[in-house]
Structures are given as structure tokens and as C-alpha cells.
Specification:
- 38% of the residues lie in helices and 16% in strands.
- The chain is α/β, with parallel strands linked by helices.
- It has 12 helices and 12 strands.
- The longest helix has 36 residues.
Length: 415
């Protein structure tokens, strides 16, 4: 009797999908590894950023960063350390400091201005050199650790008081906290969708906590596709022109590359650690923020009186801006599904002022300029354009207001 080999039945769709993914990975990988990598290299070289590291003795920590040294009369030197014009850039969640090279290059910042991009704990070379090298002894960062290391970094690399700063998403929160902590150094800041804890979208937060949303920690191609839609105007928004901001044939390669960025689940664990260290869980959300928000909301009425003792002065859990005198530009996409636009308006006490037929958003804090981007999400707008392209002219204009600078630094060819 002849034995006949049998195999579990598989649908034609599943049989086709595997080789199809290989083809997509091949095509997408070719694009990313040729055109994409070439564009990255060009941007990196144009930015003049150089990878560096420095030991922080008080924190007992080696911080990785990128720097473009100031060039004066063709030579790299700092004439006056205290008054050296400097701009700090803080990256977002899961980014590396060099990922900002393209944006920095596009700003066409004059060469005599020093540029620094500190890489936050739990990211980039911290993953490469610490987490992967010794995972059993790796300690996840907290908000306080990020603040302490960043603050000491500014001292160790001798950043002076003629300094402005930019931060986006997680980097926007770091920028907000360090601006509050070190007003002796940072004079003006640009915050783009800053991930201040009470402004993080609560549905996203709960989804990450219960495992129903694998934000920045995709376990499948579907997870990645939904995350990219959320980084636009939301996975459920079927009205936008470009439903998926990343073409399908590129998605497979992006997914495979994302698996190489960090150990599986690292950024989810990092997020949960940041939340729990601030006392933010599903069970404590109401008492941590919602009750306080009821108090903070009272500030929108003319006859309200706020019990300041009930507003937390801890910058990590505050529901209201505790650095109200700071000079800053806040930019917030109206359809941000990651960091909630309405919560951002509440935090910075923004209301609509009407003059005749015109209206504008105005913060109660006189030195805060609050601007929005219509039809845009956290990273992409409805046409698939990246937020960096949309904010570039305004960011450049604001950041270049440094002591000793003038309007002649504006170069319209870069806007």
C-alpha cells in the first residue's frame, strides 16, 4: 500500500500572501535601501551633524548626541561660550537623534549657530550599547531620569544662555520640562504636539495599557498599518485623500526594519514605564487627571477662582501650564490622534478671540503663541505630507530669534 503525504489545507489567499510579501519586501527594500538611504545620507551630510558621546558624572550615565559645531570665519570655534548662539533639538518616541538631520538641514540654520541633538534614554545608541549588550541589567528611563540627564548634559557640554530649543512629540515634552527646569539656559522653545502626560490621548493610553493598541510596537503588519493611520488623522477616518500615508509595497520593508530598531515590545514597555512612574494607569486616570481637569477647566470662565493648591505643581502630572511666563511657540495639528488637540488647548489655556469677522486662538499666557495645522494628524496630513514639511517656515522663523541675530538670516529659498 502506497503512503500518501497529506498537508494541512491552506487557502489560496494564504499561499499567495507569503511570496507576495517577499516581492513587496524586495521592491520596498530596494527603494528604501537605495533612494531612501541616499536621501538620508545627503540630508545627514548637509546637516553637518557629528555623532558624539559624553559622560555625565552626577547621573553616572553616558549620553549620546549629535552636534554641529559653530563655524566662524571658516573655523570651528566658540568665541564666547556663554553667549554662543545655540539651538537644541529633541526627537520623538522611537527616533534616533540623527533622524532629525533632514529637518535640521532643511532649516538652513546659519553656520555660526551651534546645534545639539541629545539622544534620550531608551532610544538609539542607548539601545545599541546598553539594552542589547546587557538586557538583564538595563533600567528603563523615567521622566525624572530624562530630565536629570538632559539638564546635566547641557552643563557638561557647556551650553550657554543664548539658546533656543525645539521638540516634537516625546521630544516636545522633554523640551517643555527642560525649559521649565533650566530657564537660565533656554530662552525660547518650539513645542510640536508635546507629549505632556495629561495631553496624551486617553484612548491611545488605555489601548497601550490593555494591549489592544500596539503603538510603536507593531506585532504584525496590520498593527503597523493601523499605527500609520493613527499617525495621520486616525484609523477610522475614511474621508482623507490618502488613507494610508505609506504605500503598500513599502509597508513590508518598513515593518521588517521596525523589528530591527529595538527588541520586541521595548517601546511599549518604555511608554508603560513612563506612565506608571507618573502614577498614570487606567484605574488612577480619573483621580490623576480628570478631577484636576475639572478644576483647570474653571479657568476658562471669567468669574472662576482656582484653588492653586489643587493644581499639581509637579511638571509631569500638572494639568495646567506651570511655566506660564516662558516664551514659546506651540504648534498642534487639529486632528492629532496621539496627543490630544483639545487637551493641549486646555493645558495652555487657549481660547478663541474674535475681532470682527476674524478669529484666532489665544493663550492666557502672554508669551505663548498657539498655532494649529488643519487637516493634519500627529505625523501626516490628509494628503500624506509629513508634519516637518508643514512646520518648517514657522519653526525656522521662531528659532532664529537669538541674541545677536537679525531678520537677514531668513532665507526664503528654504521655506
Amino acid at each position: 500500500m502506497t503512503a500518501v503525504a497529506t498537508h494541512p489545507s491552506r487557502s489560496p489567499q494564504k499561499i499567495i500572501r507569503a511570496p507576495q510579501r517577499e516581492v513587496e519586501a524586495l521592491l520596498g527594500g530596494a527603494v528604501l535601501n537605495t533612494v531612501g538611504r541616499a536621501a538620508q545620507n545627503i540630508a545627514y551630510n548637509k546637516s553637518k551633524l557629528v555623532a558624539k558621546e559624553v559622560y555625565l558624572p552626577e547621573c553616572n550615565y553616558t549620553m549620546y548626541y549629535h552636534e554641529r559645531e559653530a563655524v566662524i570665519d571658516g573655523r570651528q570655534k566658540i568665541v564666547d561660550q556663554q553667549n554662543q548662539p545655540t539651538i537644541l533639538f529633541f526627537h520623538g518616541l522611537s527616533m534616533r537623534s540623527e533622524d532629525l538631520a533632514g529637518f535640521i538641514a532643511s532649516l538652513n540654520i546659519p553656520p555660526h549657530i551651534r546645534i545639539l541633538c541629545p539622544e534620550q534614554m531608551g532610544h538609539g545608541r542607548d539601545i545599541d550599547n546598553r539594552l542589547l549588550a546587557d538586557p538583564d541589567n538595563y533600567t528603563m528611563p523615567t521622566h525624572q531620569l530624562m530630565l536629570d540627564t538632559t539638564s546635566e548634559f547641557l552643563d557638561v557640554v557647556k551650553v550657554g544662555s543664548n539658546t533656543n530649543a525645539f521638540g516634537i512629540s516625546l521630544g516636545g515634552a522633554v523640551c517643555y520640562y527642560i525649559h521649565h527646569h533650566r530657564p537660565d539656559i533656554i530662552k525660547r522653545a518650539v513645542l510640536v504636539s508635546p507629549a505632556i502626560l495629561c495631553c496624551v490621548d486617553k484612548d491611545l493610553l488605555f489601548g497601550v495599557q490593555d494591549g489592544s493598541n500596539n503603538f510603536c510596537s507593531a506585532k504584525s503588519r496590520e498593527d503597523l498599518k493601523l499605527m500609520l493611520r493613527d499617525l495621520s488623522t486616525g484609523r477610522d477616518d475614511d474621508t482623507r485623500k490618502k488613507r494610508d500615508p505609506v504605500p503598500k509595497f513599502i509597508l513590508e520593508s518598513v515593518y521588517r526594519q521596525s523589528k530591527k530598531k529595538a527588541p520586541e515590545g521595548h517601546f511599549r514597555e518604555l511608554l508603560l514605564n513612563l506612565m506608571s512612574n507618573a502614577g498614570l494607569t487606567q484605574s488612577t486616570y480619573a483621580t490623576t487627571f480628570q478631577h484636576k481637569n475639572l478644576i483647570a477647566k474653571g479657568s476658562f470662565t471669567d468669574d472662576s477662582s482656582i484653588d492653586i493648591d489643587e493644581i499639581d505643581t509637579n511638571p509631569f502630572t500638572a494639568v495646567k501650564d506651570i511655566n506660564a511666563d516662558a516664551n514659546r511657540l506651540v504648534i498642534w495639528p487639529e486632528k492629532d490622534r496621539i496627543i490630544n488637540y483639545e487637551e493641549g488647548k486646555r493645558f495652555f489655556e487657549v481660547s478663541t478671540a474674535t475681532t470682527g469677522s476674524d478669529s484666532e486662538l489665544v493663550s492666557r499666557n502672554k508669551n505663548t503663541e498657539f498655532e494649529t495645522i488643519r487637516d493634519c494628524g500627529h505625523v501626516f496630513d490628509t494628503n500624506g505630507r509629513m508634519i516637518f514639511d508643514l512646520i518648517r517656515p514657522r519653526v525656522r522663523e521662531y528659532l532664529l530669534e537669538l541674541e545677536g541675530e537679525n531678520e537677514s538670516t531668513t532665507d526664503s529659498s528654504t521655506l
